[in-house]
Amino acid sequence: MGTVDCKITDGIATVTFTNPPKGFFTSDMVAQTSKILDELENSEEVRVIVFTGGLPDVFIRHFSVEEIIEMTAALKARRAKGLADPRFARTPLRMLWENLDNCRKPTIAAINGFCGGGGCELALACDIRLAGPGDYTIGQMEILVGILPGAGGTTRLARLVGPGKALEWVLRGRTFTPKEAAAEGLVHHYIDGDVLAAAHAMAREFLDKPPAALTAIKQVIRSSWGKTTADGVDEEGDLFANVIGGSDRALEMMKEYVANGHKLQKF
């Protein structure tokens, strides 16, 4: 079973995701992370939150496709009975990313390995993204298994790099090496060394700054777009449900991916 661990040192909380052997994110890990995030947000001891991966060369590889296949079966069964679709935009996963996006404290993703799908969505919901060295990729590659991001990847990516780039990347399932991600603006900085140490060094910059000011800066910048993130993510979540519930090809592609040992073609 995957674990989410948290260590607090001198005002900095480090949240570590570990799910051997491949580092997929699961519903159980969503629940663990949600509880930890709520505790950290309300802790007077914590000033900054850093997220990283606990496996070699893995941040969060992506959300478990096996679980999405189970969601697909449940959704098809509901539709066969004439029942309304559940609101995928309000799932625990989507709400975790929303709560992270709206966290009052600075958040940093210390990307130390594969960061795709839901892992990339988590990184996009953080304030700052740092990528360390390694032979791994970062990006929203859901189309390669016949689906689309379901917890904010389209909206947050478009706001980060612009709708033109985001559209190409998500349509093609493009992923990037750490250096490429920094050059394209997907991450803020490429760190040629210990990315977690760099994240902690950056986190210490916030320790002597007024929490109220940091929170206000986050709020005013994040709300500066005409359409709210919640509106965009609501639409995305409904579209995600429609794809997995209505596309037999999407289910086939996800099953092929699982049967093939979770291997994707890099574009």
Instruction: Specify the structural class.
Output: alpha/beta
Shape verdict: globular
Strand order of the largest sheet: 1-2-3-5-7-9
Instruction: Characterize the biggest β-sheet.
Output: 6 strands, mixed
Helix content estimate? 40-55%
- What's the total count of β strands? 9
Please outline what is shown here.
This protein has helices at 27-41, 65-80, 92-101, 118-125, 153-161, 163-172, 178-184, 195-204, 211-222, 229-246, 248-259, and strands spanning 3-9, 12-18, 48-53, 57-60, 107-111, 113-116, 128-131, 138-139, 189-190.
Map the helices and strands.
Elements: E1 3-9, E2 12-18, H1 27-41, E3 48-53, E4 57-60, H2 65-80, H3 92-101, E5 107-111, E6 113-116, H4 118-125, E7 128-131, E8 138-139, H5 153-161, H6 163-172, H7 178-184, E9 189-190, H8 195-204, H9 211-222, H10 229-246, H11 248-259
Parallel strand pairs: 2-3, 3-5, 4-6, 5-7, 6-8, 7-9
Antiparallel strand pairs: 1-2
Helix pairs in contact: 1-3, 2-10, 2-11, 3-4, 4-5, 5-6, 5-10
Question: Can you walk me through this structure?
Answer:
The chain has 267 residues and is of the alpha/beta class. The protein has a single domain (3-202, 210-259), classed as 2-enoyl-CoA Hydratase, Chain A, domain 1 (Alpha-Beta Complex). It has helices spanning 27-41, 65-80, 92-101, 118-125, 153-161, 163-172, 178-184, 195-204, 211-222, 229-246, 248-259, and strands at 3-9, 12-18, 48-53, 57-60, 107-111, 113-116, 128-131, 138-139, 189-190. The strands form 2 sheets. Strands 1-2-3-5-7-9 form a 6-stranded mixed β-sheet, with helices on both faces. Strands 4-6-8 form a 3-stranded parallel β-sheet, with helices on one face. The mean pLDDT is 89.
